[in-house]
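[Solved] Which block belongs to which protein?

Original post:
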Amino acid sequence: SDDACQKGLAEVAQDGLVIRNCNRAKSKIRSGGIYLMDVPADDMAKEIGDIRMADMILIGALLGYTKLIPKELVLAGVQMKLAKKGEQVVLANQKALDQGFEWGADASHIKKLEAKAATESKYSIEKTTVGEILDTPKLRAIVEKMFPQVLNHPLLETGRTFKFIDAIPYMKDMLKPEDLDNFSDALEEIE
């Protein structure tokens, strides 16, 4: 999901790799200095005939890119581990892994997200608290304009110490990914 992806980015090292299911996580990534592989894993899994194969496709993409383990060894491991579940399950998982391997092995699917300039903005959804947003007139005005319904959230005062990004799961029914992108851009423009 977009929330999980944005939260997890804080843990990614410089020049680290993020592999995400772009059918589920679509918002703009705000971290720089990392590599991103967007994998349409849900679409690929539907082509196989089972949406549950999306995670196996992502694992295959990781292994295809990193080449940590030879594909044949992983496919044999799937055969051993899932044999009790029947040949159809084994074949579907192997096909998902194979498609993921192929996707990950194609370097054109990787893009480098450049690190931000040394002069970072004063505000961002990653470092600004809900309380700062409520107490800073310029920031509050952005919220009032973009998604005023958030100001009526019953837990708003309780969440004042949360970084905005950590409060998003509590407001997910009030915010769309594009709203978050626009809000984040607006915050970063304020000095």
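(Second protein starts here: sequence line, then its structure tokens.)
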Amino acid sequence: SNHALRINRPRWRHQPSKRRPVSLHLGRCRGKRLVFARPASPMHRVTVGYQDGCLHPLWMTQAGLRAARLFGATSLWVPDHFMGFIPASVWTPEVTAAAKTVHSPDGLFDPLQILAVTASRIRGIDVGTLVTEPLRRHPMAIAQSFVTLDHISRGHAVLGIGNGERENCEPYGLPWDHQVSRLDAWLCYSA
């Protein structure tokens, strides 16, 4: 007789986040409070995350994110950059083997779109940026994007935010001054 292999797939249901909000008072923000998520698990539990380069070709990014989940990663991270960090002089097939598949280290995808697609296909895993900064995007655009991502991921979006890097600003005509004070103002504005 013929036997069929049946794979029982878990049914994904929206469950309220198991994270408890934590308030952090920022003195310079005139009494405003930021809400952060405290993990439900004890701090001694070690988890593994995966950071993808978010580089062209798309199939490589998709395969990396899926493989990370299959190997047990509990979080997926992508960079929010306009250009890579590797100099073009060393990104040749003779020097770097990866250059045979990834033709440019500067061919980065938009991280929020990659995270939205990933969150809609892979459930129950934290997704976030490493890191976004308020120099290239307006605070309300960042907030709207991450609220949308949080809904798509069913409460698993993580906003990694920092004060930025010169490589993502100056070559594109964006000002690179007072970045720390702009981050501080952004945090106060968003609170």
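Accepted answer:
You had them paired correctly. Confirming on the second one: The helical segments are 58-70, 111-121, 139-152, 179-190.
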